[in-house]
Amino acid sequence: MPASMGNAIHNSFEEICKTEISQELAIGTGWFEKIVKSTLDKHWENERDLFMEAPRHPRWKSELYQKALDGLAGSLKILFEKTIGEIMELSKVEASDWAETQSYILANEATLTSNCDKLMGRLDLLISIKRSGKPEEWIVADLKTGKPPVTQLSPKVSRQLRFYRDILKENEPDHPVVTAEGWYSANQTIHTAEGPSVIEEALEAWERMTPTQEPLLATPTQEACSFCEWKSWCPSWWVAKMDGEIPQGGMFTDEVVNLVRLDPESGAALFQRAPPSGKNGELSQSSHRFGAILKDGALEQMKKIMDYIGDDPIFLGSARVSGKVLHLGDWSEILSWSPLLGSVSK
Ligand code: SF4
């Protein structure tokens, strides 16, 4: 849901920045506010459709619409503040204000590619500011719809922003001063990313991504594996979990199991845990059995794989724990357990 909300804000911001204001649009009071709202409405609906089409999704929180609208308004207010000066209410924006603001925009949702073609990034906004008596400045801005930093940018965000800054500087040798900023829509704060170039490190990372026949050494941790989407192909997290290196417990869990029985009508299932034997994905048997309630997409998926899985093991991902019973629904994964131990490419 946060990603959908962020997309709705980003896409609306991009579209509004590209909107040419005709005489017919800029009529009456509040015309800009109306454009902002109708643009967000459109993207909000698009995001909701995509969200609902996703095989695994929780509830769509329509109550977050107002937060998205406030976030979009906040982003636009930062843009005004940076270009023509502070605007307290979007309803007061005049056509000439918007035309002047747009004249500062050099690029909006643009792809930056390094000269060597190895590095690429998508910048949200590039504006050129030229104030009287001061040299021109380019601001590469990234809209942030998440939680604003308390004091300074996290190292990850700082690196991301400096990456845009540094590719831009490399591509445009005659650039003026370039500043990279994170614009946080939630509280309308601006955080500047400062520090040395990150290009060399980015190229080193690129080199390390060269595909290999053997997989990279797995380094399972709770933090890394919790949201990893490779678990049904990776034997290492299951070994780490059974060895206690990844702690058990919590609101959601993952399991590798054999299906003992399923009532396709009620979705009541009985599973038997299949603990690892060795490190390469082989499994053994256990007497540990537990019940689960499957519904919606999880029940459909289980019925589908039952046709061909036979006695083979199954990976259950993101099962909600409630006492001794697991609950699986649209948010869960049910896949065949298929450890992948080497490259499948010839
Ligand atoms: S599940 Fe496997 S691939 Fe994914 S983060 Fe954990 S160790 Fe790495």
The percent of residues in helical segments reads: 25-40%
* Approximate strand percentage: 15-25%
- Number of helical stretches of at least 4 residues: 9
- Mean pLDDT, to the nearest integer, reads 91
Q: Examine the coordinates and then state which fold CATH places here, giving the name of the CATH topology of the largest domain.
A: Lambda Exonuclease, Chain A
User: What are the secondary-structure elements, in order, as H or E?
Assistant: HHHHEEEHEEHHHEEEHEEE
Shape: globular
The kinds of small molecule bound in this structure are:
iron/sulfur cluster
- The helix-and-strand class reads alpha+beta
What is the CATH architecture descriptor of the largest domain? Alpha-Beta Complex
The Cα radius of gyration reads: 25 Å
Task: Please mark out the parts with pLDDT under 50 across 5 or more consecutive residues, or reply none.
Answer: none
- The separation of the N and C termini measures 39 Å
The overall number of domains is 2
Assign the CATH class of the largest domain: Alpha Beta
Count of individual beta strands: 11
Largest sheet: 5 strands, mixed
Strand order of the largest sheet: 1-2-3-4-5
